[in-house]
Design goal:
Blueprint: H1 3-19, H2 23-29, H3 36-44, H4 51-61, H5 65-68, H6 91-106, H7 122-133, H8 142-148, E1 152-156, E2 163-168, E3 171-177, H9 182-197, H10 209-215, H11 225-239, H12 242-251, H13 255-262, H14 266-275
Parallel strand pairs: 1-3
Antiparallel strand pairs: 2-3
Helix pairs in contact: 1-3, 2-3, 4-14, 6-10, 7-11, 9-11, 13-14
Family: Belongs to the short-chain fatty acyl-CoA assimilation regulator (ScfR) family.
GO molecular function: DNA binding
Domain HTH cro/C1-type: 12-68
Length: 283
Amino acid sequence: MSSTAVEVGQRIRAARTRRGWSQAELAARLAGQPTPTAISYWESGRRSVGLDDLIELARVLGLGISELLPDPREQRPVGALLRAVAEQVDAQQLAEQLEAFAKDAEQRPRPSLLWEVAPASPRDTAEALLIAAGVKQPPVRIEELVAGCGILIHPWDFEDVDGLMVNLESGPVVWVNKTQAQTRQRFTLAHELGHKLLQHFDRFHLEFGNELSQHATGSHPEFDWRAERAANDFAANLLMPAVMVREAFAQNEDAQTLAALFKVSPAAMGFRLVNLRLTEPAF
């Protein structure tokens, strides 16, 4: 198990205990109603919490997502931009998958670059891309936006990784786990696009083969959780633009309906509505 998963689990357990809830009671309050065993695995660090579940946990526990994450100054650095790793990834296995992924991606035709957006804040960068692409209504065509930024989307099947971005000789490529639900794939694409447009690759890199197996367990000196949070913020603003969400909310306040309209998970939409102060956090 990873040290990050353990610390996140400890924070979930502490928040649950403060509320006087059992693991079963917490599970019953969460969208999708995971089993008490799943809660136990999260709290023990045996399984890491996915992004959608983390958002839902924060909502139910009445916390900000950052309160469930370790202090970035205490993080062990890692090499690759991996999002929502389900369990500790075997370095050699990941190295082999990345080599196969890169080899296959190099043979694929490259998309044309249609839009260039200067990096700014996550919100401003997302808004600039939406304006450049002429997006005026939901759902946001995330695949078209990624491709229009000159990035190849290459679905891959490796259960421990939701997505990552890597710069190959032929150009940038985003890995998205094709076995995941569509809403999760869409958020992954938006998150990885955020890393690219916010220029986090000045600080992150991927290495293949033996080099990767040395770095994947944690030795890169520049890893910063702020970049992950910025990419999540970018993704939320891109997939659920504030203006569009407010307009849709004025017509229908149901989070499930809005989630379907924007093609995001109900948990992500619920958190977005709270963030935009359209609804109150559920306690």
